[in-house]
Amino acid sequence: MTRDIGTDGFSSSVFQIPMRFEGLCKELTHAGRVYPDGLTLAIEAAAPRPGFLVYAQAKKLSIRLNGMEPVIFSAVDLNTHLQVAQVYLAATSAAAVDFVDFVSQSFPFGISQIRTLDQSPFHTSAGAGSLRDFTSIMRERGLFHSTFTRPSDEVLLSLVSKLTFGGICEGSLVCASKEEMLRELARFLFFHNNYRSLPWLGGKTPLQKLKAFEGFAGIHSFDPWKGPHRQERNTSIGETNRFRFSTGYAARTG
Known about the structure:
8 helices; disordered C terminus; Nucleotidyltransferase, domain 5; single chain; alpha/beta
């Protein structure tokens, strides 16, 4: 008999997932086998279609390059688990807005809601006004911005955040150069989006899950920086403060 546990019936121990990739794969596979139907139902209820709910987060990698600590901004579409990411030199609100623009232009579907933690860079400590400012910017872009205060209450986020580059590599990544880090990020994203099968997606990869929806069957691979869905990026926010690590990646100094 299948147990419908929704998003409230998980033991917190299920999500104590090691940061290293091998341990992560074992733990995620175990969670998917124990609660496959519950996870699938919870995801479908929270995000019935691609773009309905996208989680965005920023993570420092605890390494230093050129005297600065890079920040990985990641966004995961909950329905398909398609993921995009970018590297910035600082977790500023301007970087957060720029990243959301990148996400909107990269995914091959429209986005309805961006959900983030209500703290910097999506909400600063200056007070409620800062949160309203970021939310109003999202509203101007046709996006609903929702927030949460305790990550432990966001069970599905606990799952998908472990699948991000920052979630896997936080505290364990060793890179000789920014170019090496970006190559690793590019490889990670391409494998995740096109080849990583997930039990709670019915054994499908994120791309296969997307192709199950009408209008996406012709997409043969997903690369955030290539493809016909890619648009010219919005450069209205601090373009002079940016330098490119490599094609498709950008870093912001403030």
